[in-house]
């Protein structure tokens, strides 16, 4: 079987379970001649359990106008805000503290993000997430 030729990769962040042909999905897929409704149907089916969360997706477009896509874990700041029940991060991190997060909570988020983070173990993942917390104005408790 001959390998399909990859034309491009499209990276988007789409609301889980709520992909529509409206921007950003429609224009991004339309310019490569991909079936927008087919993508929306497959994406919504795959992400129906995470409704309300923005999910990063990487769509690989092939020369025969077919496509495949992989979904990644939600962005770390989104998971941190959800864990703490925050609406927004601090406007002036370093000066304002909007919340405190326990190491056990960071470990829980690290398990979700582990595949997409650039590290080998949970301890390194927790350190990366702790840095994200500090830049959001969230104090990390040991």
Automatic annotation (TrEMBL):
GO terms for molecular function: large ribosomal subunit rRNA binding; structural constituent of ribosome. Transmembrane segments: none annotated. Keywords: Methylation, Ribonucleoprotein, Ribosomal protein, RNA-binding, rRNA-binding. Forms part of the ribosomal stalk which helps the ribosome interact with GTP-bound translation factors. One or more lysine residues are methylated. This is Large ribosomal subunit protein uL11. The keyword rRNA-binding applies. HAMAP family: Ribosomal_uL11. Residues 72-140 form the Large ribosomal subunit protein uL11 C-terminal domain. GO terms for biological process: translation. Part of the ribosomal stalk of the 50S ribosomal subunit. Interacts with L10 and the large rRNA to form the base of the stalk. L10 forms an elongated spine to which L12 dimers bind in a sequential fashion forming a multimeric L10(L12)X complex. Part of the ribosomal stalk of the 50S ribosomal subunit. Interacts with L10 and the large rRNA to form the base of the stalk. L10 forms an elongated spine to which 2 L12 dimers bind in a sequential fashion forming a pentameric L10(L12)2(L12)2 complex. Residues 10-67 form the Large ribosomal subunit protein uL11 N-terminal domain. Signal peptide: none annotated.
